[in-house]
Amino acid sequence: MNNLLIDDYPLVVLPNLAKRIGLNEAILLQQMHFWIQKRKNIIDDISWVYNTYAGWAEQFPFWSESTIKRTVRSLENQNLLLVGNFNKLKIDNTKWYSINYQELKRMTRPSGQIDLTDGSKWTGPSGQNEQTITIDYPETTTETNKIPYVEIVNYLNDVSGKNYRSSTRKTKDLIKARWNEGFGLDDFKKVIDIKNEEWKNDQKMNKFIRPETLFSPKFEGYLNQETKRVPSDSQFEDLF
């Protein structure tokens, strides 16, 4: 009989570590350790892991992105994370992380009993190898996967009060096209802010606060817009 209540991947929780640094922090740090041990991204002899907040949210669907942000910030403040930026594009602000194992070891003394498992197998009291205890989700490793579709669309929805889906094929294609042109997350947010402020109170233009307009080939023009300008009726067709 399966020892789990349902057929799903369980997450490891180290009680003593959770007591010292926080429950959410202990869970996230374990998952980061799991990816770091795979040693896919070695820079200056340090193994790094990178992901967007939206990407972490896919691995922890029971947390909101704001919860993940607070948890990461807490780990940074406790000096348990090394932070870097090794992205190919300078405008890509995706953070890279490695665990400060020296600080972790210092914090967990004097018991010396806390050790982050590699996440592959765990030997229980019976001596039997149990099911994997760290979720083996695909790490974000390609430029395409690094595109923060969810974060961009969620930001649009939060700012405009609308309800667009990040999974829509057309929306993803538009975001990907602009991303491949070298624009980053901050650029998307800036365009959303600019056009929302300009059109939100205009009955004719409010409907154009949508992905197919904001992320169209006119994106760069919107990004560099200096003054608030409401288009005339004759300009509506240029929005498509």
Poorly predicted regions: 118-145
Write down how many β-strands occur, each being a DSSP E stretch of 2 or more residues. 5
Shape: elongated
Q: What oligomeric state do the depicted chains represent?
A: single chain
With helices defined by DSSP (H or I, 4 residues minimum), what is the helix count? 11
Helix content: 40-55%
Q: Looking across the biggest beta sheet, what order are the strands in?
A: 3-5-4
State Rg.
Answer: 22 Å
Tell me, rounded to a whole number, the average pLDDT. Answer: 78
For CATH, the homologous superfamily of the largest domain is named as Winged helix-like DNA-binding domain superfamily/Winged helix DNA-binding domain
The largest sheet is: 3 strands, antiparallel
Number of domains: 2
**Annotated CATH topology of the largest domain:** Arc Repressor Mutant, subunit A
Strand portion, in percent?
5-15%
Q: Structural class, from helix and strand content?
A: mainly alpha
- Our measurement of the CA-to-CA distance between the termini, rounded to an integer number of angstroms, reads 58 Å
| CATH architectural grouping of the largest domain | Orthogonal Bundle
